[in-house]
From TrEMBL:
Nucleus is among the record's keywords: no
Organism, scientific name: Capitella teleta (Polychaete worm)
GO molecular function: glucuronosyltransferase activity; xylosyltransferase activity
UniProt keyword Iron-sulfur, yes or no: no
Family annotation (PANTHER family): GLYCOSYLTRANSFERASE-LIKE PROTEIN GNT13-RELATED (PTHR12270:SF52), GLYCOSYLTRANSFERASE-RELATED (PTHR12270)
Protein name: Uncharacterized protein
Topology versus the membrane: Single-pass type II membrane protein
Location, primary (coarse class): membrane
Subcellular location: Membrane
Gene Ontology terms describing biological process: protein O-linked glycosylation via mannose
Assigned keywords, A-Z: Glycoprotein, Membrane, Signal-anchor, Transmembrane, Transmembrane helix
GO cellular component: membrane
């Protein structure tokens, strides 16, 4: 049984374990995938996101707004090394959450209010209501 990882649930590890071909998934609120995409076609990372706070998440979100499809590659995986915990990480995370809400408004203006999120995750502990912005 694979662990339930909040930021990576959309990957559908139950399918990935036995998959022999790629399968399409839908972006979900707070999804933080590792992406393989051509620089030529991908939007740039937004400069408002510093270090590790919502940079992958915001990039995937913009790609979803822009109409990119998300596909899982079978027989592939990524190793992720833990981040060093910053002494002010709670404050930085809260601020980054507020920046993320502004970013959602920016995306709605840029792409239109076209993106529908059908997934409602548990509320993050810092109190911001990201999914209400979509």
């Amino acid at each position: 049984m694979m662990p339930q990882l909040f930021l990576h649930n959309a990957t559908r590890y139950d399918l990935w374990q036995d998959a022999s071909t790629s399968y399409q998934i839908q972006w979900q609120t707070l999804y933080e995938p590792y992406l393989v995409v051509s620089r030529k076609h991908a939007p740039k990372y937004h400069e408002a996101f510093l270090e590790r706070y919502h940079n992958k998440m915001s990039h995937a979100l913009e790609m979803a707004f822009a109409g990119f499809e998300f596909w899982v590659m079978p027989s592939s995986y990524v190793l992720h090394l833990p981040h060093v915990k910053h002494p002010e990480s709670r404050k930085i995370s809260k601020c980054a959450g507020e920046v993320l809400m502004d970013f959602v408004l920016y995306l709605r203006r840029k792409y239109g209010n076209i993106y529908d999120v059908s997934y409602e995750p548990n509320r993050p502990s810092n109190g911001w209501k990201f999914e209400k912005m979509l």
